[in-house]
Amino acid sequence: MASGTRRRRWASVLAVTALAVAGGGALAGPAGAAAQQVDFATHCIPPAIAGIPPIDGTTSAKITVDNASPKVGDTVTVTYTVVTPAASNPTDLALPADIMTPTGKVTLGGAQTGDVTVTGPKKNDPVPGKGAFPSFSMTGTFAVTSPGAITLSPGDYNIHTSYILELDTPCTVTNPPAPVSETVTATDATPVNNRAITLGSASGKPGDSVTVNGSNFTPGATVTLAGRSGAAQTTDTATVTANAQGAISGSLVVNDKTTTGVVAYEGATWSDTKGAGPAAYVVIDDTPAPPNSQKVTTTVKAGTLSMAQAGDSVQLKEVDFGQGGASKGALRTVTVKDFRGGPAGWSLTGKVTDFTGPGAKIAADRLSWTPACVTKAGSPSTCQAGSAGTVGSSGATLASTPNAALTGGEFTVDAQLSLDVPAFTPPGSYSGVLTLTLS
Fold first, then answer.
1. pLDDT of 4
2. Does the predicted model carry a pTM greater than 0.85?
């Protein structure tokens, strides 16, 4: 992040009173458009105690993701749903509810290869003797490391039962990999621009030179130094060459009396991704006033980027033990004020901790939000609400404004919150900390 950028953090405590054992993995978000149910041959080995031979059958499954268009570096949550298992209850003994714990793998292909480990909650409907195992879902995550199309195929899975005895029924894909069920398309992450400049002085007379020093430019690059008048570039320019460490040092003669700042950039024209500044600079006009006249001057002073929130605690709605479900509430309103007057936009992000309670916890990735953002009339920038979805410990964007020639304004940010509480979470109060960061 360029020097001078202010980062502000606020933390809110979110609490949910549950008459509701954290039994499940994270809920998956919307599936990508390519997600489809696929069938594949499976070889399952019943527990030895069952005394029956291996089962060769067909598994029907589907894979969904919470983000079908991630950037390199993003974490994608994967949900592997076995719609119809190839195996069934190998014994004549009926199995009660909530004794099955599934685990498995999702196979990645295309631009990124490997396996994603997925796990499911200990949750199932009762299974009659010799009856078919019910559908179940497992979740896991992977970090995107390469741009391009990444395919996801169902992999091996295991059904573990905990009733009288601990038994496993492993099922493997007969002809791996199984058909592709989902595809995500990853893009290169926007590189962080750490270029920065400082000026030898903040003001001067028309025709004076100002020293410009900079860092983190591309080694050997030709860098243009230029004056700015508000959002427009003046005709005052000079060029320097970045050294092997990416540092620059040069001088710029400033003649334009309307100059408000100085920038430095690589390439033929200014770019937010390869530029630094503007650094504030004022031209002191020493032109004598005509006889019998008075020169009237004023200055518009740049301010700061700040935020304030209308409270630091949120009480979510109660849910019932044995039922669980969505515990809903609203984020305390956040007001963002951008009075910097430069070209940079801002981003407001949030991340949350696990919700801890009486001897148990509710995972952070069970909290989701639906953001909203309103721009005050007359603001140069327009606020954009973040996408609805999981907040989690890795975080998500609540709202932002883009870079532009001139940015700023006042903005009101809100969000509807929903915590997915597992059905048999022990009764009590559960709290997590949601931290907001403005940058």
1. 39
2. no
